[in-house]
Amino acid sequence: MHYLSECLLIKNENQYLREHITTNARAGIEHFFIYDNNSDNSVKKFLSDYPELRKRCTIEIFPDTEHKQLDCYEHFLNSHRNDSVYCTFVDTDEMFDGDLLKEISNNGDVYEFRGLIHGCNNQAFYEDKSLKDRFFADKIYRWNYTKCIAKLDNLIKQYPHQSKCKKNDKIFVTPAFSQLHHYYYKSFEEFVWKIKRGTIQKNTVRWLNNFFQDNTLPDSEVKEVLDKYGIDLKFKTEKNK
């Protein structure tokens, strides 16, 4: 049995997976239960080139469902609840720094981490740097954004940002030994790509406001990227009111 594991649902984000596994393993996560949501390049094939990372992973092929993320977590609890003492449920662009084992050393039911959210700072999608190297400290936001580490034998249901346990005694983690980082916008191009594939709704004004307020691309470059991806965004931001 593993002490601390991670459940990760992923689709077409293999380019971030090595950094994600390496960083979170360094923070104390022993094993990764990766749910591959029919990626174009399978996670299993991708990780076959990295045997040291592959041996840390259990890979499940997970189809599209009506409530994809919730259904993924339900499958994990039904299939792997007894494989670990604790588990965290995060996304590919969420990584821990520090020592998680020190944070969860008092045998709590749910540890709730408030993440630092990083903007993309106009970094290019295909730039040959790690996510951690592409983001600068002046683009950090302390929003009310949390992810949890939960004790699996008490966990009833897992939500993207909340763990419902039998006792549900939450411990709010103040970053003494570790910190959760969320790389919110990896690039302008990827943000547009997510809109195109339907991950982000076009009418979600908050997402659009956040992105365009947090970046300083000239209007000509914005139009060039939108034209490249064939996207006609109708949005209101502080920038163009």
Characteristics:
single chain; 241 residues; Spore Coat Polysaccharide Biosynthesis Protein SpsA, Chain A; 27% strand; disordered C terminus
What does this structure look like?
The protein has 241 residues and is of the alpha/beta class. The chain folds into two domains: 2-183, Spore Coat Polysaccharide Biosynthesis Protein SpsA, Chain A (Alpha-Beta Complex); 188-229, no CATH class. Helix content is 29%, strand content 27%. It contains nine helices and 13 strands. It has helices at 17-26, 43-47, 51-54, 68-80, 100-103, 131-134, 188-197, 205-213, 219-229, and strands at 2-10, 31-36, 57-61, 84-89, 94-98, 110-114, 116-118, 140-141, 146-151, 155-159, 162-165, 170-173, 178-183. Strands 3-2-1-4-9-6-12 form a seven-stranded mixed beta sheet, covered by helices on one side. The protein is globular. Mean pLDDT is 81; it is low at 235-241.
Order of helices and strands: EHEHHEHEEHEEHEEEEEEHHH
Morphology: globular
Measured distance between first and last alpha carbons: 56 Å
What is the CATH-assigned architecture of the largest domain?
A: Alpha-Beta Complex
Name of the top-level CATH class of the largest domain: Alpha Beta
Q: Residue share in helices? A: 25-40%
Order of strands in the sheet with the most strands? 3-2-1-4-9-6-12
Global mean pLDDT: 81
Stated plainly, the CATH topology of the largest domain is called Spore Coat Polysaccharide Biosynthesis Protein SpsA, Chain A
> Number of domains in the coordinates?
2
Low-confidence stretches: 235-241
Report strand %: 25-35%
Number of helices: 9
CATH level-four homologous superfamily name of the largest domain: Spore Coat Polysaccharide Biosynthesis Protein SpsA, Chain A
